[in-house]
């Protein structure tokens, strides 16, 4: 492999010329050579449909083995598949969510192989004419390869195929459960744009977040709805040519992917440093042992004898249909965070809470309409509403408070009608009763005292009862005013207008 590599970086050549340590060794075994990992992921995701891809059997998890099966998904001779329109819609919608092109012609192909997980001895997939291609996903990631905390990974394609059965191995026999056979499966192939375990992990999180938010898949890893083949190679840092690709098959957890890469990348680098030539192969991750081990040398496409599926028509979506699917694209988390930063001027932390909590974000957006202080509304929604929701295990959609009532409450505080302390009590009552803040304030006589005459009396009382702080303030200790202000608030049961009370106190003490 050394011959195939491009010119080594300068430091290597220099060491090869002068360094005693490297005398007699080819340059690529130099211990100082730096390597980088190149990773591309093939992610399989089960689509959220009621029925399977070609038959009416339920797409359900957890049923007794071989109860959701019929002659079609069992691959009996002579049966004909009927494509699931919903699965095709979800595939194209995924294409839009991942910024893909949607070709006007797509088709299905047979990938032939012999293994007990497929009763048909082939898997229907999309080989050379997939339903979506050439997209990208952007996600938050801090690390090498990111710019301003964002990374972008190109999506080669997202194509539709069918899942296969599940083999189980027992003490004395093996079994196949065909409940999963024929479940619509999306394969999302990334370009080799990932550079390490953390970036691969962040990508998987972001991708499944998009698919979950987009209503494409429940992405339940526990139920095996997301499975991933990890392709990884290493090369000298900065080289353009890719190294030999090692594929780690069938990973079913994201932390597993990260751990497998944390093992596999140094393994490959060490091997190359020893002067070994890596060959394309398929490996298996042993989660208990924490190692990858060889499975088989990698098969090529021609081994599968792909050919067009004769029982299914090609797909030729119309403009009209494509437009209707495109209209179903929802706002994705990252886009929402950016919009909340831009439109409402919220700090990062607030925007991230709304990024991750769609119902809460929806509530906020209704509450903030026409409000002059988005930040104040966000504070109420995040600090008060969210806390009470989790305390009472209530969903945002079931809450009694209406969004515009939060806006009203903020208006009452801003306008000086109630103090922010009283506003807390008003909010509690709003949460419990659903009544408007104005009604609650009136009912309880909680209007803020901004009446100068009434406040003067309270200030006189406070000064008389607290000669110490009064004397301190007169002696120049400005901070002593707070103690007196606190007394006024207490005497007024929290209703005094604090700013006004402070002014009056100061005027009286300086007199
Ligand atoms: P195959 O046809 O064998 O599945 P592809 O070329 O279609 O191979 O690539 C499959 C996946 O492997 C893609 O995600 C791609 O980005 C990734 N990949 C391809 N070559 C390499 C490489 N040398 N190192 C790491 N990943 C690679
Ligand atoms: Mg592959
Ligand atoms: Zn069936």
Topology of helices and strands:
Elements: H1 10-18, E1 35-46, H2 85-97, E2 109-112, E3 122-125, E4 133-140, E5 150-162, E6 166-169, E7 174-177, E8 184-190, H3 197-213, E9 226-236, E10 246-251, H4 254-273, E11 281-286, E12 291-297, E13 307-308, H5 319-326, H6 333-344, H7 348-356, H8 358-367, H9 374-391, H10 403-414, H11 420-433, H12 437-444, H13 452-465, H14 467-474, H15 480-491, H16 498-510
Parallel strand pairs: 10-11
Antiparallel strand pairs: 1-8, 1-9, 2-3, 2-13, 4-5, 5-8, 6-7, 9-10, 11-12
Bound molecules: adenosine-5'-diphosphate (ADP), magnesium ion and zinc ion.
Protein model, in words:
By secondary structure, this protein is α+β, with helices and mostly antiparallel strands. It folds into 3 domains: 27-320, no CATH class; 333-444, no CATH class; 452-510, Orthogonal Bundle (Arc Repressor Mutant, subunit A), CATH 1.10.10. Helix content is 39%, strand content 17%. It is built from 16 helices and 13 strands. The strands form 3 sheets. The chain has an 8-stranded mixed sheet with strand order 4-5-8-1-9-10-11-12. A hairpin with a 4-residue loop joins strand 6 (166-169) and strand 7. Helix 13 (452-465) packs across helix 15 (480-491). It is elongated and about 100 Å long. It binds adenosine-5'-diphosphate, magnesium ion and zinc ion (ZN).
Which structural category fits the helices and strands?
Answer: alpha+beta
- Which molecules are bound in this entry? adenosine-5'-diphosphate, magnesium ion, zinc ion
Secondary-structure element series: HEHEEEEEEEHEEHEEEHHHHHHHHHHHH
The pLDDT mean sits at: 91
Quaternary state, please?
A: single chain
Q: How many beta-strand runs? A: 13
Q: Helical residue percent?
A: 25-40%
């Amino acid at each position: 492999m050394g011959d195939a590599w491009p010119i080594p970086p300068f430091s290597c050549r220099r060491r090869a010329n002068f360094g005693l340590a490297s005398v007699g060794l080819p340059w690529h075994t130099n211990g100082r050579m730096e390597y980088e990992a190149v990773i591309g992921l093939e992610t399989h995701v089960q689509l959220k449909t009621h029925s399977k891809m070609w038959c009416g059997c339920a797409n359900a998890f957890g049923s007794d083995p071989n109860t959701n099966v019929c002659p079609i998904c069992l691959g009996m001779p002579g049966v004909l598949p009927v494509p699931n329109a919903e699965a095709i819609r979800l595939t194209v919608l995924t294409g839009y969510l991942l910024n893909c092109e949607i070709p006007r012609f797509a088709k299905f192909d047979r990938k032939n192989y012999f293994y007990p997980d497929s009763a048909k001895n082939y898997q229907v997939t999309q080989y050379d004419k997939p339903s979506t291609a050439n997209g990208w996903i952007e996600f938050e990631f801090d690390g090498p390869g990111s710019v301003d905390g964002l990374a972008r990974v190109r999506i080669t394609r997202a194509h539709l195929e069918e899942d296969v059965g599940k083999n189980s191995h027992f003490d004395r026999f093996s079994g196949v459960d065909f409940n999963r056979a024929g479940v619509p499966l999306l394969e999302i192939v990334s370009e080799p744009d990932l550079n390490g375990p953390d970036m691969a992990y962040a990508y998987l999180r972001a991708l499944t977040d998009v698919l979950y938010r987009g209503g494409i898949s429940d992405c339940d890893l526990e139920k095996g709805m997301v499975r991933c083949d990890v392709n990884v190679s290493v090369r000298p840092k900065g080289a353009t040519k890719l190294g030999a690709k090692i594929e780690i098959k069938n990973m079913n957890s994201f932390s597993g992917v990260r751990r497998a890469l944390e093992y596999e990348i140094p393994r490959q680098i060490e091997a190359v440093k020893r002067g070994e030539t890596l060959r394309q192969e398929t490996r298996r991750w042993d989660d208990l042992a924490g190692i990858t081990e060889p499975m088989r040398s990698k098969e090529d496409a021609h081994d599968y004898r792909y050919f067009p599926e004769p029982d299914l028509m090609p797909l030729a979506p119309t403009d009209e249909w494509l437009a209707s699917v495109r209209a179903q694209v929802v706002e994705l988390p990252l886009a929402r965070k950016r919009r909340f930063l831009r439109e409402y001027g919220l700090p990062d932390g607030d925007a991230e809470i709304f990024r991750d909590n769609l119902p809460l974000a929806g509530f906020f957006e209704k509450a903030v309409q026409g409000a002059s202080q988005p930040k104040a509304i966000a504070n109420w929604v995040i600090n008060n509403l969210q806390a009470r929701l989790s305390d009472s295990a209530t969903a945002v959609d079931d809450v009694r408070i209406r969004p515009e009532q939060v806006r009203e409450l903020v208006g009452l505080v801003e306008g000086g009608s109630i103090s922010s302390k009283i506003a807390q009590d008003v909010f509690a009552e709003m949460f419990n009763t659903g009544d408007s803040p104005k009604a609650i304030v009136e009912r309880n006589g909680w209007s803020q005292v901004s009446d100068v005459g009434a406040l003067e009396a309270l200030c006189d009382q406070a000064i008389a009862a607290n000669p110490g702080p009064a004397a301190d303030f007169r002696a120049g200790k400005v901070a002593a005013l707070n103690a007196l202000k606190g007394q006024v608030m207490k005497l007024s049961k929290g209703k005094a207008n604090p700013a006004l009370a402070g002014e009056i106190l100061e005027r009286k003490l300086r007199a």
